[in-house]
C-alpha cells in the first residue's frame, strides 16, 4: 500500500500543529542554553578559582565560535539534506553537555562542553528558524520569528531562574544541570518522532516567488560564495542585518558572562543575581510575541533601529547603576530593545533572500550574529581586566548605539505591506511536484498568497 501524499500548503493556520510543535522544540533548545546563564560565571570563580575576566569568558568565546560556524553549515546542510536530519543531529550532540557540566574536573572540560553546546545550538536553533519560515510563507514571517525567538528566550529566562534557585538551595553542582538532562532527552525524542520535514514548503514558495524590483540582482541561482557576499557585505538590507545581529549578540555575550559577576560583586546573593539574569531574557522573550507580529504591519526597519538604540541606553544605565531596583529596570529595558531587534532581523533576511537559498542566507546571518558572542567575550573580557567591568559595559553601549545609527542610514524597509496578498480562499496544493495553480492578483500563486 502506497503512502498517502501529504498536502503541502503555506500559512500559519494551515500548518498550526507542526508550527506549535517546533515552538515547543525551540523552547527546549533555549532551555539548554539557560541552564548556564546563572551558574557558570559563579562556578568559574568559586569552584575553579578563575579571577581574570578574560579567562572566565573563555567558555562564551568557545560557544560563540562553535555556534557561529555551525550556523553557516546548518543553512547549507538544510538545503542539501533536509531540515529534520540537521535538527535531530543537533539534539544528539546536546545529550552529553549537562553531564560534562556536572562532572568536569577542570575548566577546560567546561570549555569543551560549551563547544558541543555551540554546535548543538547552531544546528537546532538555526533549523527551527528555517522550518518556521518555510511553513508560514511571506505574510506572517515576523509573527513566526516572534514566536520562535520568544519560546527560546523565555525558556532561557525560566531555566536561568530555576537553576539559580537550585544553586542557592543545593549548591552549584550537580542539581542545576539535571534540568538540562531532561531537556536533551525530550528534545531528541520529539524531534525524531514527531517533527516533519519542511523543505517541500520552501520549494512550493520558490515556484511562485516574484522578487521585488529592488532585488532583481538576487536571482534564484546564486552560488554559495555569492550568497555569502550579498548577505555579509553587498546587499544593503542583508548586510545591515548581519552587522546589527553581530553587535546585538556582542552585548548579550557581555550580559551573559559579566553581569552576574558585576551584580555579585555589589553584594547581591545568588537568588537576586538569578532574578536579574532571568529578567533580561524574560522581557526579551515575551516582547517578541508582540514585536514580531507588529513588524508585519509597521515594517522591519523602525524596530531594528529603535531596538539597537534602546539597548545602548539600557547598557549605559547598567554601567552607571549600583542598586538592585535600577539594575532590574535596566535589564527590562535591555530585554525590550532586544525583543524589538531579534525576530525582526530574521524576518528581514526572509523578506529579501530568495526561497531557493534562504536557508543559506539565514545560516550566514546567524554566522555573523552568533559570532558576536565570541567578539563580545573577547572584547569585554580584555576591557574588564584592564579597566573594570563598568568600562567594558560603557564601550559595548557605544558600539551598540553606533550599530543602530548605521542601520538607520544604510538599511531600507524590506517588508511589503500584506494588502497586496489576496484574501480569497486558496486552491489546494497537493504536493510540490504539482504545477502551481492559477495566479492570484499580483502574479502570486493562490497557494502562496492565502491570508493566514
UniProtKB/TrEMBL annotation:
Presence of keyword Membrane: yes
Matches recorded under InterPro entries: MFS, MFS_dom, MFS_trans_sf, MFS_Transporters, Sugar_transporter_CS
Membrane topology (UniProt): Multi-pass membrane protein
Annotated segments matching region Disordered: 417-452
GO cellular component entries: plasma membrane
GO molecular function terms attached to this record: transmembrane transporter activity
Keywords for this protein: Cell membrane, Membrane, Transmembrane, Transmembrane helix, Transport
Compartments, as annotated in UniProt: Cell membrane
Residues annotated as transmembrane: 12-33, 53-74, 86-103, 109-130, 151-171, 177-195, 303-321, 327-350, 393-412
Pfam families: MFS_1 (PF07690)
Domain Major facilitator superfamily (MFS) profile: 19-415
Record-linked PROSITE patterns: MFS (PS50850), SUGAR_TRANSPORT_1 (PS00216)
Annotated Low complexity bias: 440-452
PANTHER family registered for this protein in UniProt: INTEGRAL MEMBRANE TRANSPORT PROTEIN, RESISTANCE PROTEIN MDTM, PUTATIVE-RELATED-RELATED
The protein's name in its UniProt record: Predicted arabinose efflux permease, MFS family
